[in-house]
Amino acid sequence: AAVTSLFAQAQTFPANPITIVVPFAAGGPTDRVARDLAEALRKPLGGVSIIVSNVAGAGSSIGSTKVARAAPDGYTLLLNHIAMSTMPALYRNLPFKVETDFEYVGLINEVPMTLIGRPTLPAKNFKELTTWLTQNKGKINLGNAGLGAASHLCGLMFQSAMQIDMTTVPYGGTAPAMTDLMGGQIDLMCDQTTNTTQQIEGKKVIAYAVTTSHALTTPSLKDLPTLQASGLKGFEVTIWHGLYAPKGTPADVVAKLNTALKAALKDPEFIKKEEALGAVIVTDKRMESAEHKKFVAAEIAKWGPVIKAAGTYAD
Ligand code: MLT
């Protein structure tokens, strides 16, 4: 009976509202992508209502655990990013295995990061910032969204590239961190352009550099130097977002979600919102679930050694 009911359920999917869990605080880059994507998914999913639920904490491992343990019926999904490839190296007791405890629905986008400072920081460009960092060793506060977050990974790489330890201040997401940065409570942060573009345009923070190997095309970001060109050899980090369902979600439900995701990624409205914030939608080939799974495995292999070299662990 159980098998038929799962089969029957898959046939009528989606018959109920779908929840997309965002494992960071509302208002941040992950939340931004999720809310814009939920908008674009509604029509391809037959008008079903899509609820975005923020379950923050521990660099996305709390929200990710919630979805790993959810009923495998396609009605609870996880939208997460590069943290899916950094958590395995950072948490010794993760209650899930990234590579086996999720069904991979598909990749969404790639998002550059920017290094930004509080508006009162007495350094107007990267060169002046390196002088200020050297003069203020031991007194620098770097905001992030917890161990494993994109802002954490970039901050870790920045500290080891500069050989300067900074006090890291973790938040439930980079939205609350941004509030404190603009208020001057913290000095620096490495955050995705989806969250920083407006603040940079509004001169609410000082922008120093971008983390991609190439300059960006967004008008307000195109003059920012890359960290690589600013002397940090090989410094390159781009954040990517993907959609996941709990392991055991029926294959045809995952396929229906992947088809709807592909349609949403072709939605001109969604593309326009993403591009205005410096994000780039993945190419068609990369939208396949199998590609998503392969990519995450490669990213786990890539970032593990980087994190271990930087020597930060958490239980
Ligand atoms: C991150 O640093 O991982 C993200 O910015 C977290 C968030 O979406 O707030």
Automatic annotation (TrEMBL):
Superkingdom of origin organism: Bacteria
InterPro entries linked to this entry: BUG, Bug_dom1
One Pfam family per UniProt: TctC
Keywords of this entry: Signal
UniProt cross-references to SUPFAM superfamilies, sorted A to Z: Periplasmic binding protein-like II (SSF53850)
Family under the similarity heading: Belongs to the UPF0065 (bug) family.
UniProt protein name: ABC transporter substrate-binding protein
Species assigned in the record: Rhodoferax saidenbachensis
